[in-house]
Each structure stands twice: as structure tokens, then as C-alpha cells.
Write a structure and sequence with these properties.
Layout (H helix, E strand, L loop, with lengths): L3 H4 L5 H14 L5 E2 L11 H12 L12 H15 L8 E4 L1 H13 L5 E6 L4 H8 L3 E6 L10 H7 L4 E7 L11 H13 L4 E5 L16 H4 L7 E6 L12 E4 L2 H14 L5 H13 L1 H22 L6 E2 L7 E5 L7 E2 L2 E2 L3 H12 L1 E2 L1 E2 L8 E5 L4 H16 L3
Helix pairs in contact: 3-11, 4-11, 5-6, 5-10, 7-8, 12-14
The structure holds pyridoxal-5'-phosphate (PLP).
Length: about 400
Amino acid sequence: MLSKKIQSIKPSATLTLAAKSKELAAQGHDVISLAVGEPDWDTFQVAKREAIKAIEDGFTKYVPSNGIEDLRKAIAESASKEYRVSYMANQVTVTIGGKFAIFSALQSVLDPGDEVIIPAPYWVSYPTMVEMLDAKPIIIPCEEKQKFKMTATQLESAITQGTKLLIINSPSNPTGAVYSAEEYKDLAQVLLKHPQVLILSDDIYNRLIFNNEEVSPHLLHVAPELKDRMININGAAKSFSMTGWRVGWALAQPQIISAMSNYQSQTVSCASGFSQKAVVKAIIEGGAELKMARLKLKERKNLALTEINKLTAISSFDPDGAFYLWVNVKKTIGKTFQGKKIANATDFSRMLLEDQKVVGVPGIEFGLEGYVRLSFAIEASRMKEAVDRIGKFLGQLS
Ligand SMILES: Cc1ncc(COP(=O)(O)O)c(C=O)c1O
């Protein structure tokens, strides 16, 4: 009954794990989920108030498929500052979350057989989305010694006549690695030699960084001449703690933007109007709350990192942004837990969940074996409790 294509699609691993931990919690277990990709604090107050006002004012109907004008203008203005190149409202389209911005961008530029370069570890959905369009993911493994970032040499050797697109995600989900301006310069030199390659930059975590800046470095800071080849993705979900409001966006040249808007108009129509009104406020007036969020995250990162690194059997990469610890569990592989061998990081995650009711996402879901992703966007005392439990689990390995 089902199409071949739909049968080849796996459910999102992170959402599946989140469901599993809810199920265990419903059975009465004290589950600590470090699997989810969302902040635990509330949506910004300015946004909530604006949405309530919009609903009361009757702003509850269809809106233009490319987004309400106020929001496209606010995005263009803030993006022009963040990217240090000028964007106009006709270079913006608003989508149902950043996820759909990525999918409709891919749908707008990829033909079957096109090659898409994806550095690993990658966000779970990129390769699946590319495959859904019968295009070909070309995965570039980026190891710990290179801080999980793609080098210019790796990029150069991956580009062929068939390369249509590079996907870059900084700060990265799952590692939190951030490309520096210097690293971007090296990548830009390669990209400038290959004008047929478009670049999708997933910037969804670009305001959640720990170096006291407001926004992470970007390819456009070092190579503004790439602007017409870039599709920049962002959204309200992570920065403003608005995961459930489903508002994302893309900035690109008008031809791509209008293709994406047409695609959205024929599939899901538009992102919710009152959510969009709320996001306008979050962008314009959310600065103070965003600053607080950054501070809170940095504190939690430091605490989680210190606690994890007290455990000798595992170690974490120190992230520069986002809210994940990318934890190396390779030393536990080959050991046994209650008579059962840990063959890989997926076994590690499963046994940890069964024994200690702590949920982490196995690294293979992000394309790199030997790691587990733990979110630290949870309350500090719960994080500490989670790490204590991980320590108890590790103490039982032989
Ligand atoms: C790297 C990355 N890109 C895009 C998204 C999509 O976010 P949303 O669709 O909630 O805006 C996520 C969410 O987890 C993400 O981690």
C-alpha cells in the first residue's frame, strides 16, 4: 500500500527517543531526558503577549504564503546586521519552522542525482531530506581531532561536476562546534573556485553562543560575494524558545525565495499568522531575554561539562554554541554491562536508559559512531542528577 519512497523514510530519531522517554515517565519512572532539542525555559514574554493580542484582535486567518510583511521586514533588518550584507524583504520567506525552510529550499534547488555535501556529524534530517528528493548525500566525516569541522581540503576533494549544494550548520547540532572566521575564509576560497555550488547555511543556533558575542561568525562575513549563492536558514524555535510556534525562515536571492514560497503555497499554505506576529516582537524587543538565555546556557554548559569530565570513562567536546554536549563514549565500547556487551554507542544509550532512565541520543543518528549527544538545556540540578546517574551506570561496566 505504501509508496517505496515513504517506506525508505526513517522517523526522526530524536523525536522517537523523546516519545520513548515520555512513555517511561508515564509508567511512573523518574526519567531525565537529555534527548530533546529545545530550551526548557518559557517562550519570551514579549512574544506571548503579542500572540494573545493578535488572537483577540481576530488575526486568526490565512496570511500570505511567504509570511506577513512586518515579519519579513523585521527579519531582513536583523539579518542585514547579523550577516553584514544588505537583505530586503523580498529576499525573505517565512516557513512552518526552520525544518520546512530547509526542506522547501532543497525542493527548490535539487534535481534527482544532484550531489549534496554534508559534513558529519550532521543534523539528523539533512541526509533523509536529500534522499527524499532522489538527490545524493555526500557525507564528509569530520573527526574529533579536527573539532568535528570540515577542512577546506576535505571540501575541495568532495566537490565534483555533480555537486549542487553544500550544507553547513554552525553552531552545529549535535557538536556545538562553531566555524571561526579564519576557517570560513579557507572554505570560501574553495567555494569561490566552484561557482555551480550553492550553500545552505543552517544558522538556527547562531545567537546561542558562549563567547560574549551576539552572533556566531558566518561565511558572508568573510565572503560577501557568495551572497547570491547562499540560502540562510533561521527560525524562532531555539533563540526565542518558540519550538511549538512553528516559525522559521530563509534568506536567499529572490528567484529561490519565490520558488520556496510557491512550494509552500501549494503544500502547507502558510505559517500561523499570530505566531508570526509574536516573532516580530521577539526579534525587535527580545534582546534582553535573549541575553539572559545566553548567560543561562553558558552557565549550564560549564556545569554540565565540569560534571561529565569528572567521569574518566567518557569525555565531552567543549561546545562554542547550541545546547548539546557531544560525548565520546568509545572507551566503554567492548565492555559489558550486566553480562551484555556494549557493541556501540547505540547499545550504550539503550542500556543507560534501561538502567538509569537517562536519555541521550546515539551518535550514529548524526553520522558518527562512538558518541552520544546530551542536551544541557535543562535545569542545573537535573543535569547534575543525570550525570550522577551516568556515573552509576559507568561504575557497573566491566
Ligand atoms: C540544526 C537544526 N536545524 C533546524 C532545526 C529545525 O528547527 P525548527 O523546525 O523547530 O525551527 C533544528 C531543530 O532541532 C536543528 O537542530
